[in-house]
Amino acid sequence: MLKLIESQSAFFSKFAILRKNSKMDYIRQIINELQHIYAANEARNIAVDIVQHITQRSRTQVLSNNFPPLTNEQQNTLKSLVERLKQHEPVQYVVGNTEFYGLLFKVDKRVLIPRPETEELVEWILEETKNEHSYLIDLCTGSGCIAITLAKKMPQSKVLACDISAEALDLARENAQNNGVDVDFFQADVLAAGFAENLLQADVIVSNPPYVLEHEKGQMQKNVLDFEPAMALFVPDTNSLLFYEAIAKTAFQKLKSGGSLYVEINQSLGNETVALFEQTGFTKVQIRNDLYGNLRMVKAEK
Going by DSSP bridges, is the β-strand pair 255-264/234-235 parallel, antiparallel, or unpaired? Predict the structure, then answer.
C-alpha cells in the first residue's frame, strides 16, 4: 500500500511540474504513463483524445498547442482520467463518447464501442438502398449507432431498433435525441419464440449481433474483455451461429420481396454464415471483407 501511495504521489507531482512547462508536455506525460499498455502511436492518439476532451478544443488546436493552460480543476480531471486508462479502461468510456460515421455517440459500459468495420456495414446499406421511404429494422442495436446513422442519412425512411438490454436502449434513445433523429426503439430478445410476430414487413433488416466465440477470449485485449458487455460479445463455441439462425428466420419472414438482410459476422465463420442464409432460402448472398481484409459482412436478398 505504501508503494502505491508513493507511486500516485509521484504521478500527481509530474503533472504539477507541467504547469511551468509547454502545454504539449501534457500529451508527452500521458504517453509516458500509458506506454506499458499501448503501442506508441495508440498511446499518442489516446493522449490527444484526453486533452481534447478536457480542453474542448479540436484535434488541430491541441496538436498546435492552441489552448489555454489547464486550470487546477482540469489538471485534477486529467489525473483521474489517466488513472482510469492505466486500469485498461477504453478511452471511449473514459471520455464518454465516440465518433461513428461522422456522428457523436455517447458510450459507456452498457454498450459495445462502435467499430470502423460497422461503419462499412452502414455504408453498404446506404450505397444499395435506393428507396428514400424505406422501412429498416436494426436487431441487437446496442448504442443505436447503426439505426441512428441510417435515420440521419435517410430522413424520409422509418427506422425501428431493438435490443434485449433495457440499459442499452436507454443510452440508444439518448443518442437518438442528441443526434436529432426519430428511431422507434423497443426491448426484445431476437432469440425468443414469436419474436417476429409483431414486426411489420421491412425493406432492410440489419444486425451486428454477438459473434465472438468463447474460446476467442484468450485472444482479446484487456480493455475489451474487462469492460465491454459480455452479453453483447460472446456466443457458445457449440452454437456459434445461434443469433444468425434466429435473424435469418426473422428476416426471411419479415422482409418484403426484394428486401435485403445485412449482418456483421465473425471472420472465421464467413462460409458457414453464407451457407446458413442460402439454406434459409435467401438468394444472391454476398460476403465482403472489411478494411483490414477480414471477412466481416454478409448481405442476403429475399
Answer: unpaired
Count Cβ neighbours within 10 Å for each residue of 231-263 and write b for 16 or more, e otherwise.
Answer: ebbbbeeeebbbbbbbbbebbbebbeeebbbbb
Which residues face 187 on adjacent strands? 163
Cβ–Cβ < 8 Å for 288, 124 = yes
From the number of C-beta atoms within 10 Å of its C-beta (0-12, 13-18, 19+), residue 159 rates as: buried
The pLDDT assigned to 5 comes to 40
What φ, ψ does residue 284 adopt, rounded to 5°? 50, 50
Q: What is the pTM of this model?
A: 0.90
Q: How far is CA 218 from CA 212, 213, 222, in A?
A: 11, 10, 10
pLDDT digits (tens, 9 = 90+) for 26-42: 899 999 999 999 999 99
Q: Residue length, the chain?
A: 302
* Max Cα–Cα distance, the chain, nearest Å: 69
One of 3.10.450.50, 3.40.50.10490, 3.40.50.150, 3.30.1450.10 is the CATH number of 97-301, namely 3.40.50.150
Candidates 40, 36, 62; CA nearest to 49 is 62
CB 299 within 8 A of CB 262: yes
Domain ranges of the chain: 2-87, 97-301
How many Å apart are CA 43 and CA 35, to the nearest integer?
6
Alpha-carbon span 212 to 268, nearest angstrom: 10
pLDDT digits (tens, 9 = 90+) for 248-280: 999 999 999 999 999 999 999 999 999 999 999
Q: Does domain 2-87 have CATH number 1.10.8?
A: yes
